[in-house]
Amino acid sequence: MDIFESVNMAVKTLTANKLRSTLTMLGIIIGNASVIAMVGVGQGAQRYAAEQFETLGPNTLFIIPGSDEARQRTFEVERALTLEDAEAIASQVPSVRAVAPQLQSQQPVTAGNRRVSTLIVGTTPDFTIVRDFDMDHGRFFSEQDVQRNTRVVALGSDVARRLFDDSNPVGQQIRIRNLSFEVIGVMESKGAFLGNNQDDAVYIPVSTMSSRITGNTSPYGTEVTFISVTARDENAINAAQFQMSNLLRLRHRVVNEDSFTIRSQRDALEIVGNVTGALTIMLAAIAGISLFVGGIGIMNIMLVSVRERTQEIGLRKAIGASQSDILLQFMIEAVILSAIGGLIGTGIGVAGVTLVAVTTPLQAGVSTAAVALAVGVSGGIGLFFGVFPARQAARLDPIVALRSA
Q1: Do residues 151 and 189 share a domain?
Q2: Are 370 and 40 in contact (CB under 8 A)?
Q3: If DSSP codes are grouped into helix, strand and coil, which group holds residue 366?
Q4: 352 shares a domain with 244
Q5: Which of 20, 41, 321, 368 is buried most deeply by CB count within 10 Å?
């Protein structure tokens, strides 16, 4: 039998039972759409995370107190990082461009009759270099402000708007823990980082923070929450990590386990990438189950079709159709069902990914590999699950088939 004739007969058979054919394709449609959408959203999440880490500043490293092993055993940190550690890194590590220690505390801030709770960050002038912050208007505090414990602040853009609306806050007074501070600048909007609003913060000299807000709590010097560092360039990141580790081990007199951890943007991004990649694979695998279920649906309907068309099969074999002709006929029907379902599912999946990209911050995109895989798998499933019913039809004895009709 001619292949084109077989395709034509298969199309006529399937369109004669439109509702049943549509319901049979539903599992394949849902499976394809789910796989494409999940992979697209997962890759969008990875790109979003990469962009978020870029907002931290170029070639940035973070030094946090305590080792990973110690944090797994207990929440207590043996020795805190200090302002003196940051000063030693700035003066003794040649591969470092700038260092910004940060001492943080959540505090209420008052301006006139308005009161907001926000993050108070005690830091140094190099903070704007390390974290790639710019001033919208006014200035950031200077090294002299740090040395003199000056009560000056630079406001994040969101805090400035919540306290002063659209008016210029530079030169105005705010109160933190009943102490007056002069606003000397407002930061440019930086946006959120993994859900944390970087514009909802107030920046003051670290010396003022430790002496007036939090107090000195470490016997080793002025305690800081963590230290941000920027390497001279991308090629100097590994050297900076190595040199800072050695310096801090000497300063902290480390014998066995480090009392600190150094993380780079690359390390953090790799961790997030591994997590989002694993979630993407898991979601795609779960969505792929519906493809398997759709294949079972195709096999089920094809078996029903064989039962219904027993007389037709017997008649065709009686007038000379071979087993391969019957096998090909039913295989074509199964492949058409899965292929059309795959194409419709692909269209829905692409539309879903586009909708996510338009309505959310995730830069979801259609993965060509995911589309090819989903369509290929759906076609393969139709072929695989269509074999058994097709072989049953091909093996029917024509005399028995005619009598059973």
Answers
A1: yes
A2: yes
A3: coil
A4: no
A5: 41
- In degrees and rounded to multiples of 5, residue 166 shows phi and psi of -95, 0
DSSP 205: E
Question: For the segment 27-43, what is each residue's pLDDT rounded down to a tens digit?
Answer: 788 888 888 888 888 87
276 and 391 part of one domain? yes
- Regarding whether 87 and 210 lie in a shared domain, the answer is yes
Q: Of the candidates 216, 251, 286, which is a domain's last residue?
A: 251
Same domain, yes or no: 226 and 320? no
Q: Given the DSSP bridges, would you call strands 201-205 and 173-176 parallel, antiparallel or unpaired? A: unpaired
What domain count does the chain have?
2
Which of 22-26, 143-147, 290-294 bottoms out in mean pLDDT, i.e. has the lowest? 290-294
Backbone φ and ψ for 65, nearest 5 degrees, come out as -70, 145
Q: Does residue 315 lie in a domain region?
A: yes
Residue 266 is assigned to a structural domain of this protein: no
Question: What sign has the CA pseudo-torsion 125, 126, 129, 131?
Answer: negative
Q: What are phi and psi of 168, to 5 degrees?
A: -80, 120
Domain membership flag for residue 261: no
In order of 79, 97, 102, 228, 311, the CA distances from 85 in angstroms are 12, 15, 12, 12, 89
- In this structure, are residues 214 and 105 in contact, taking their beta carbons and an 8 Å threshold? yes
The answer to whether 393 touches 313, Cβ cutoff 8 Å, is: yes
Q: Kindly report the length of the chain.
A: 405
Q: Minimal CA–CA distance to 118: which of 149, 150, 162?
A: 162
Yes or no: say if 34 and 292 are a contact pair by the CB < 8 Å rule: no
Helix (H, G, I), strand (E, B) or coil at 120: strand
**Do residue 275 and residue 200 come from a single domain?**
no
CA 361, distance to chain mean position in Å, is 11
pLDDT band of residue 76 (cuts 50, 70, 90) is: low
Domain containing 214 equals 80-251
Q: Are 241 and 135 within one domain?
A: yes
Task: Tell me the C-alpha to C-alpha distance, in Å, between residue 250 and each of 14, 88, 246, 258, 403.
Answer: 78, 11, 6, 10, 95
Placement of tokens 């395709």 in the chain: 7
Give the distance from CA 282 to its chain's centroid.
14
Digit-coded pLDDT (tens) for 337-381: 888 888 888 888 888 888 888 887 777 777 777 777 777 777 777
pTM beyond 0.85: the answer is: no
**Whose structure tokens read 């049943």?**
20
Given a cut of 80, is residue 125 above it in pLDDT?
yes
Rounded distance between C-alpha atoms, residue 39 and residue 269, angstroms: 19
Token couple for 293 = 């279920």
